[in-house]
Amino acid sequence: MKLQFAWLRQLINQEMAPGIGWLAAVYILPTKPATLPTVLHTKTAVTQTMNTFEKIYAQPEELVPQLEKLRAEGKTIVLGNGCFDLLHVGHTRYLDAAKSLGDVLVIAVNTERSIRSNPNREPPINSCEERMEVIAALDAVDYVIPLEDPLPIPVIELIRPHIQAKGTDYNLEQMPERFAVEACGGEIKFVGDEKTHSSSALREALRQRGAL
Fold first, then answer.
1. CA distance 94 to 98
2. What's the DSSP call for residue 56?
3. C-alpha–C-alpha distance, residues 99 and 117, integer Å
């Protein structure tokens, strides 16, 4: 792995700000082999030719007709949500696992207003528009919408997913939105790896190195 990415570390050290080089060494070059999940997924026919921006719906209600068409075709719609500020392997494993639950994966990304409503969360580093663009660029994701509310209940009622995918750090007792999922005939499933990666940990690592 170190040999494979050595050129990238050299390029970052030479061409970018001095404080960025360590990021390649620490987060791009792992110190020990990772155990990779064996989740496989394929793009849905409707999104396989779409570019990143075509997958983003700034107005969630505009996505509903397309989802109803897919629902009528027998497709299983999966909904996930999150901030996705500093993207890490825990995020990508969650998204891959969520996609494996069905045919169409819709991700609702928390906006700045939504994040501010949670006093335990720090303001995001990246704007909602940029976070949505990053998530839409991933193959596992079919559609991306913003989440303006503190809880995804309005989005659940609008999208009416067959499955809501949540990370393994949640349980049903922590999810008041479960009643909205059940009311629309859906179910909740917990996916992804154990909660051993987090954006908060990355923020702290950046602070310790003087990068924040």
1. 6
2. B
3. 28
What is the CA angle 192-195-198, rounded to 5?
Answer: 105
* Strand 187-191 with 77-82, pairing: unpaired
Q: How far apart are CA 36 and CA 119, in angstroms?
A: 34
Measured in whole angstroms, the distance separating CA 24 from the mean position of its chain's CA atoms is 22
Conformation bin of residue 127: beta by default, left when phi > 0, alpha when psi is -120 to 50:
beta
DSSP state at residue 51 = -
Q: Tell me the average pLDDT across 45-64.
A: 89
Tens-digit pLDDT profile for residues 110-145: 999 999 998 888 889 999 999 999 999 999 999 999
The pLDDT mean for the chain works out to: 80
Q: Which residue has the tokens 């500020």?
A: 85
CA dist 164 and 158 (Å) reads 13
How many Å apart are CA 97 and CA 166, to the nearest integer?
A: 10
Task: Compute the distance between CA of residue 118 and CA of residue 155 in angstroms, rounded to an integer.
Answer: 18
